[in-house]
Write a structure and sequence with these properties.
Chain lengths: ~325, ~140
């Protein structure tokens, strides 16, 4: 029976090693000192643009809030996904319930690394996998703008997730696969500034790929099908293919920019679904920003639809 | 003979069913609405000159279109099935659905009651109307393809 003892021993040792490795690999990683140094003092006026490019209010305002109430970032919306229900938290300036007590560095760690001030992983329903591509200076500006917003008391309910997604530590492994500050689409040398500016807005703060790209079994964005459209992760229906092979293939850059400004398609249909809030945020940007987004969307690789074809009449 | 009567009545029934197709009717109404909005947008974008009388005619057409919208006729129970992008939410919250349409009708009427004097005024009105389109489509329409 000595061989059995050896086997059990080996299993315990290997299992222990795997657990230790998993623990190390899943540890939250914060920003390095060099990136923190590049944050600098933020400019609230510039941060307002980033705030609308990111559409923070669409998830963090009280559900159904209109007008100025959209700047009360008290949280509470329910995002019902296959992983469970995510509830965006209070990110108002409230010291206790919101993020009023966060330092600029805390804020940057949340946005770029998905790590909370207490050192926990955030769930990537908070789209830091996109925000990780943002410039530190823009994070600082956004922080300064958020400081000008009201403090609103009240904690949003916790997420309601099913096992194994309840284990936050596991997100550390997810981040090793999917968290990167590198651009998704490598553009050729000499690509126009407009396209580069659009890439930054779309891939970074705008986080368009989070809904417009299909995800793999682990909930990571499939970069090989970037912006190809997807079955909606939340709610019902599909999200459009916005590559040059999608439903917008016949739209000119001016059509795309106009859609983002007014909510009308070139056929004079109107924006719908979750895109309604996004379009209202995009309308707050400058014409230059909207044109840059349009130029980038025309420059991304064309892809077939990332969602199944519509069923024939039932 | 009996068979013939049944066949004829079945044909008649099929005919009337095809005629009263609320899904097609509501899609036609929305298509027309989009076309009218498109005419206004051409003026706002500067593709066409601002002609107050022509704009007013178009706004009146928009109001007429909005008045034709009758949720009970166009969205009867059961018309959530078939080739439609209408969201089930319409039938779960018919009162809410009707109130978004009422807002659109009220805003369309307001444009006719105080017609725009220049492009900027028209732009502001079209923004309001376009916002109404979005508000309804946000909740009550599903994108399928």
């Amino acid at each position: 029976m000595a061989w059995l003892k050896k086997l059990v021993g080996a299993v315990i040792v290997l299992g222990g090693a795997a657990a230790a490795a998993g623990w190390v690999l899943s540890a939250p990683v914060r920003l390095d000192a060099e990136t923190v140094a590049r944050l600098g003092p933020g400019d609230a006026a510039k941060g307002k643009r980033i705030f609308y490019a990111g559409g923070c209010t669409s998830c963090h305002a009280k559900p159904g809030a209109k007008g100025d109430a959209q700047l009360q970032l008290v949280g509470g919306l329910e995002l019902k996904t296959p992983f469970g229900t995510f509830v965006p938290p209070n990110i108002s300036q409230d010291q206790k319930d919101g993020i009023g007590a966060w330092s600029e560095e805390d804020f940057a760690n949340a946005m770029l690394k998905g790590v909370s001030p207490s050192g926990e992983h955030f769930y990537p329903a908070f789209p830091y996998a996109s925000y990780a591509r943002m410039r530190p200076a823009d994070i600082a500006d956004l922080y300064a703008f958020m400081k000008t917003l009201p403090a609103v008391a009240g904690k949003a309910p916790d997420h309601k997730l099913s096992f194994p997604f309840t284990i936050r530590r596991g997100i550390g492994l997810w981040k090793r696969l999917y968290l990167s500050s590198e651009p998704v689409i490598a553009l050729p040398d000499g690509a126009p500034d407009k396209v580069l500016a659009g890439r930054y807005l779309v891939e970074g703060p705008g986080h368009c790929g989070e809904c417009h790209t299909p995800r793999d079994f682990a909930g990571g964005v499939r970069k090989s099908e970037w912006l190809a459209g997807a079955v909606a992760a939340e709610g019902s229906g599909v999200v459009s293919n916005i590559t040059p092979q999608g439903g917008t293939r016949d739209w000119s850059e001016a059509d795309i920019a106009n859609y983002l400004e007014t909510g009308f398609t070139p056929e004079f249909d109107s924006v719908g679904g979750a895109m309604v809030e996004v379009q209202r945020n995009m309308a707050q940007l400058t014409a230059d920003d909207r044109e840059a987004i349009a130029a980038y969307l025309k420059a991304v690789p064309p892809r077939p639809n990332g969602y199944p074809a519509r069923k024939p009449k039932s | 003979m009996r068979k013939l009567v049944i066949a004829i009545s079945m044909l008649a029934f099929a005919g009337s069913a095809a005629y009263a197709d609320p899904i097609k009717d509501r899609q036609a109404l929305m298509k027309e609405r989009g076309k009218i909005a498109g005419q206004l947008s051409k003026v706002v974008k500067g593709e066409e000159d601002f002609d107050a009388a022509a704009v007013l005619t178009t706004l009146k057409a928009l109001q007429a279109n909005a008045e034709k919208f009758d949720a009970d006729t166009l969205f009867p129970a059961g018309s959530d099935k078939g080739d439609t992008t209408a969201a089930p939410k319409i039938w779960e919250d018919m009162a809410g659905f009707k109130s978004t349409e009422d807002k659109f009708l009220a805003d369309a009427k307001a444009t006719v009651a105080s017609p725009p004097a220049d492009v900027d005024a028209l732009k502001a009105q079209l923004n309001t109307l376009g916002g109404d389109c979005g508000t309804c489509h946000q909740t009550y329409r599903i994108k399928k393809s």
